[in-house]
Specification:
six-stranded mixed sheet, single chain, 15 helices, 407 residues, binds adenosine-5'-diphosphate, Nucleotidyltransferase, domain 5, alpha/beta
């Protein structure tokens, strides 16, 4: 292999990576360093379907304690493993996931000092994410200083939204002076699944009108016309829109002041409730995890059923609302851990959308689980497609293109 892209997705306490061969489009080696900064930090490696070394099994996984527990120690361990596997020289460029690119980054960018400074400026819009992404970039630059480094932004895909979709009805000075507008997230995933869907439906992307929902621990939905985002549910931050694992999604903003006064909380205290104690977890008082809630619901737990109903009803409402930006609906696309696996939630959403021309195929819905891409609506219905997303592959292909490694 001579065309590897190392993809880095760096969080404050984790570092996910994947080495992708852009010719075979296979993940050769991937992994996750977790609990960085803590005493029990560890790193897991997973080998791809065709490992380099004969003593490795396809898909083999191993986990080890990470001495030092820093981001730099994680990068060292990754480099060491790449060397051991004879893969280090195949890395030709490094692609980084960056959450917030503000209005500056309308596309993937080659990282320069000026780009780093702009990403830093966007940090105030994503204080939990961008500083960690920057840390990942700086660590990789120290280790792979000679290679091109590329930033792929979650927000840039949504820069095509029209003004009437991205502006809040707030004083315009807040937009002009402070960048208060809707940015949207999950853009890399949306780009990947829309091009897959166009392929599956045998239609040029430019002629498609999709509503897409990325449903993981964070959840959003987006209207995509002709391959470009025209509206999305997430806003200035990833708190707006759908109900999520621990995030509330849309609420009456009046609740913020009310809670601050009733509970004697400062803004950070209220935001903590909205970001970390709400959503599926808040309603169920049990778990933020969809699978666990499905099990509890099946065992008769009312709060778990209610949490999943609120999640599904709200999402169905958003999907219907997003069709306004499209004028028609060619297909509904579902992805992310919940979208790809939860037949329960998919049924709960699609069964509310008959008026948009969607009719669920119960058997196909039950059969479609992780990794399987497929149609879960009956013949004659507006199609609902489950598509397994691959943000790492998208980042790798973007990086390879920008680095001039592929056309
Ligand atoms: P993240 O946004 O952190 O990347 P994922 O995309 O992995 O998260 O999605 C995690 C969610 O997917 C969790 O709520 C999990 O319960 C749900 N999920 C994963 N597998 C299943 C399954 N088989 N059935 C129902 N939900 C599932």
């Amino acid at each position: 292999m001579n065309s590897g892209i190392l993809v880095i997705n760096c969080g404050s306490s984790s570092l996910k990576f994947a080495l992708i061969d852009t010719v075979s489009k296979q993940e050769v080696l991937s992994g996750l360093a977790e609990k960085l900064g803590m005493a029990d930090s560890r790193i897991t490696f997973k080998h791809g379907p065709t490992p380099r070394r004969s003593y490795r099994q396809p898909g083999e996984k191993d986990t080890a304690a990470l001495a030092g527990g820093t981001h730099a120690a994680a990068m060292d361990a990754i480099i060491e493993r790449l060397r051991e596997e004879g893969l280090l020289d195949s890395v030709k460029a490094v692609g980084h996931r960056v959450v917030h690119g503000g209005e500056v980054f309308k596309a993937t960018a080659m990282i320069t000092d000026a780009v780093l400074a702009q990403i830093e400026k966007c940090s105030k819009l994503a204080p939990l994410h961008n500083p960690a992404n920057l840390l990942g970039i700086r660590t990789a630059m120290q280790q792979f200083g000679d290679l091109p480094q590329v930033a792929v932004f979650d927000t840039s895909f949504h820069q095509t939204m029209p003004e009437h979709a991205y502006l809040y009805a707030l004083p315009m000075s807040l937009y002009r002076d402070h960048g208060v507008r809707r940015y949207g997230f999950h853009g890399t995933s949306y780009r990947y699944i829309t091009s897959k869907a166009a392929e599956l439906l045998g239609k040029p992307l430019e002629e498609t009108a999709f509503v897409c929902a990325h449903l993981g621990n964070g959840a959003s939905a987006t209207a995509i016309k002709g391959g470009v985002s025209v509206d999305t549910t997430m806003g200035l931050t990833p708190l707006e829109g759908s109900v999520m694992g621990t995030r509330s999604g849309d609420i009456d903003p009046g609740i913020i002041g009310y809670l601050a006064s009733e509970l004697n909380l400062d803004i950070a205290g209220v935001m903590d409730i909205l970001n970390k104690k709400s959503g599926l977890l808040g309603v169920s008082e049990l778990s933020s995890d969809c699978r666990e809630l499905q099990e509890a619901a099946a065992a008769g737990n009312h709060a778990a059923t209610l949490a999943l109903d609120i999640f599904s009803y709200r999402l169905a409402k958003h999907i219907a609302a997003l069709t306004v930006g499209l004028g028609r609906l060619d297909a509904l696309l579902l992805t992310g851990g919940i979208g790809e696996n939860s037949a329960y939630v998919r049924a709960n959403v699609i069964n509310r959308l008959g008026f948009l021309g969607l009719t669920l195929d119960e058997a196909a819905n039950q059969e479609c689980t992780r990794g399987k891409t497929g149609r879960i609506t009956v013949e004659g219905s507006v199609p609902a497609l489950v598509i397994s997303t691959d943000e790492e592959m998208m980042i790798a292909m973007d990086t390879a293109k920008l680095a001039g490694l592929i056309d």
